[in-house]
Amino acid sequence: MIGEVTFKAIKEDTEDVAMLGVEVWCSICEEELDKIDSNNVHFDVIGRAQKALVSMLLENITRSEDVGLNEWNLKVACGTCLSLMANHVKDGIWELILPWVSDHINSNSVKHKECAVTVFGSVLEGPNKTKIGSAVLSAVPCMLQLMNDGNESVRCCNMGNQSRM
Description:
8 helices, mainly alpha
């Protein structure tokens, strides 16, 4: 039930309402991470919803209007949720985001390129470093090239990724 309501809001409503829907999923993920950390039982809502949730987040991460580098918007909310999910589901998220990032990282659209950089950086912490190491290593030339991108936002997002890599 909560999935249906929040997914509908995220996909179909205004950006402000969509952000609230994403924040619900962030809260669920944070609660499950807390339960995991304290060895308490949890329902693994995020694990069971991960494929649909990642797909929905990737579909909507580019909806935000460009409001500035430090503004909370739908793109930042989606990136935060992906980051929390990466810490929860670990390796499972990597296969779900990699095709999307590969399709958008060299886009002519600055918005899509910036979102691809954001998604890539959002999931670097969580998955097993050995499992993602070769993909991260193969991304280094592209990330270095993006350091010279004509868009400041792409460069800033990319610099954050460099520090995580």
